[in-house]
Design goal:
disordered N terminus; elongated; binds adenosine-5'-triphosphate; 4-stranded antiparallel sheet; ATP-binding; ABC_transporter-like_ATP-bd; AAA+_ATPase; ATP binding
Length: about 575
């Protein structure tokens, strides 16, 4: 974070914008095509202006003026349509490439990033912010070239009539640019505020929509309605402020344009009356001057978009500056026997230290239970073994090898992990079972594993069997069913080490027994580490670690630990048979 702040301080938005574009792999061929078509339009437009000026001046020669005028008018229509198509395609492709870049980055960031940033706010970074950056490229960045080219072309034509007239035009034109700069600065703050408030609103709505069960059961509908209203009011107020700023910009721009037109006409008129320009040139000059004014003021209006999109650039480039997890650094995991040793492990959440020199041994080929009071760090310990957080100090070794030297990707392939939440996606049962596997087991294998965790009957009762959708995040399944599918998914992974965090807590007594028997059979000879909260699941352990106040206070087989640990005795005596 500190590093990012330093980066942001050192490099302005411009620099970060271009660094980001460098990473985005823009559709360069399409962009070149768009620029070429725009250059063609500029040339056609110069010819159209000159032929129309000749017509206005009374030259009606069919082949010298009328037909060329009609031809160029038609040509500008055709090229205009091609240009608008190319521009829209460019915008869509830039949008797609930027989104792909941000998403690729986001999925490679460490868990800590998601804990430090509201994941739901990330939604708007990938959608709204990316769209404003794509628009910025199409409306501000590329028009630098098209506007400069058209302006130079037209100024060149005016200069061919009289060089002094061109300089007069060059002096008058920047009035609009100056005004747009000032207005753009004003708009930036407001546009950024709108984006931030909308992102907060989206995040809050997404969170509430996910937690409707809690809202209903606690009867907080009214409170939530009022809180939502306050957030919507905040967004509305930001939008109203933006309207006021834009409202102020309109008359200022209109007055500036009117003054500019008067100056342009007076300058042209002076040259025409002294005979420096003929009638056709005078009309053509006026046509070019008006077009130049429009092109520059359109560009300057877009410039205010740049100021508005600066916040989006900052937010997206903040993601792009984050360090990714180095998934492929280090050597391959190969086959792990699964003897896990923790040496002087230190780990903190922010400033709060959880482990300050934790030592523990988890034997290979056994089922080890981790028990301890709530908040003692059992889940965190599993997360550290799965390398979801980096250690502040100390080492974790498997079979004597420091796991920090093993490539994260191959290590996590060798370690299966069933987390507390039993994560399911809104696909079919099959898609959920196969998620993350680098092979495609056939139905017979799926049947075997599902039978082992006691969910095969349920699958067979479904109209579409394994191809039955499970609803959003597995909403159509019970908590126990979700847990069985999560365990089945981990068993299909055929990992060397299996971590389970209260993986059977939502199952009934016979369900737990069935799942644990299968784990013992299917993981025979491999290492299983699980968090146990009740005496029944503790029965499955060959080895027990008691974790209290950041240290292991007892370790060994059941007999040894029961003698050593009051916590464990209490757990067996008081909670005997109770489910977690
Ligand atoms: N992401 C986090 N950020 C900050 N603190 C955290 C985070 N996750 C856990 N903690 C804190 O770390 C401590 C250990 O949490 P952990 O979930 O590892 O405990 P646990 O033993 O598994 O608890 P339980 O038995 O209740 O599931 C707790 O005090 C908790 O508040």
């Amino acid at each position: 974070m500190e590093q990012n702040a330093l980066f942001r301080k050192r490099y302005g938005s411009f620099r970060r914008f271009f660094v980001m574009l460098g990473k985005a792999r823009l559709p360069y061929l399409w962009i070149v095509g768009y620029l070429a078509v725009s250059a063609l339009i500029a040339n056609v437009s110069v010819s159209t202006t000159e032929y129309s000026a000749a017509l206005f001046a009374g030259q009606v020669g069919l082949f010298a003026v009328v037909l060329p005028y009609l031809f160029f008018t038609l040509l500008s229509l055709v090229i205009g349509s091609i240009s608008s198509l190319t521009s829209n395609l460019c915008l869509a492709r830039i949008d797609r490439n930027l989104r792909r870049m941000v998403w690729k980055k986001v999925v490679h960031l460490p868990l800590q990033f998601y804990e430090a940033n509201n994941p739901k706010e990330l939604l708007s970074r990938i959608t709204t912010d990316v769209t404003s950056i794509s628009t910025l490229i199409m409306q501000v960045l590329l028009p630098v070239f098209t506007t400069a080219y058209s302006s130079l072309l037209m100024l060149g034509r005016v200069s061919s009539y009289d060089q002094r007239l061109m300089w007069a035009l060059v002096i008058v034109l920047p009035v609009n640019i100056l005004i747009s700069f000032v207005l753009g600065r004003m708009r930036f703050g407001v546009a950024d505020l709108i984006n931030r408030r909308n992102a907060q609103l989206t995040a809050a709505i997404a969170e509430r929509a996910n937690n409707m069960l809690l809202i209903k059961s606690m009867g907080t509908e009214e409170k939530e309605a009022v809180a939502g209203e306050a957030r919507m009011k905040a967004s509305y107020q930001a939008e109203v402020t933006d309207l006021w700023v834009r409202g102020l910009a309109l008359p200022i721009n209109a007055i500036a344009s009117a003054l500019q037109s008067v100056a342009i006409i007076l300058a042209g008129r002076a040259f025409y009356s002294t005979g420096a320009l003929d009638l056709t040139q005078w009309i053509a000059y006026y046509g070019f001057a008006i077009q130049l004014t429009n092109i520059l003021s359109n560009y300057c209006n877009s410039w205010s978009n740049f100021k508005g999109a600066q916040g989006s650039v900052d937010r997206v480039s903040q993601i792009m500056d984050e360090r990714e997890e180095p998934l492929d650094e280090g050597c391959a995991a190969e086959v792990l026997r699964g003897n896990i040793s923790l040496r002087d492990v230190c780990f903190s959440y922010g400033d709060t230290a959880l482990f300050t020199g934790l030592n523990a041994e988890i034997p290979a080929g056994k089922i080890t239970a981790i028990v301890g009071p709530s908040g003692s760090g059992k889940t965190t310990l599993l997360n550290l073994i799965d390398r979801l957080y980096p250690l502040a100090k100390g080492t974790i070794a498997v079979d004597g090898r420091d796991i920090a030297g093993i490539s994260l990707h191959s290590f996590r392939q060798a370690v299966g992990y069933v987390t507390q939440e039993s994560v399911m996606y809104s696909g079919t049962i099959r898609q959920n079972l196969l998620y993350g596997l680098d092979r495609t087991p056939d139905d017979r294998e799926l049947d075997r594993v599902c039978e082992a965790v006691g969910i095969l009957d349920f699958v067979q009762e479904q109209p579409e069997g394994y191809d039955t959708p499970v609803g959003e995040a597995g909403a159509s399944l019970s908590g126990g069913q979700r847990q069985r599918f999560s365990v089945a998914r981990a068993l299909l992974q055929k990992s060397d080490i299996l971590l389970l965090d209260e993986a059977t807590a939502a199952m009934d007594i016979s369900g737990k027994d069935c799942v644990w028997k299968s784990i013992r059979t299917l993981m025979a000879g491999k290492t299983v580490v699980y968090v146990a909260h009740d005496a029944q699941t503790l029965q499955n352990a060959d080895w027990i670690l008691v974790l209290e106040h950041g240290t292991v206070t007892a370790a060994g087989d059941r007999q040894t630990v029961l003698q050593q640990s009051a916590f464990c005795r209490e757990m067996m005596d008081l909670k005997g048979g109770a489910s977690a």
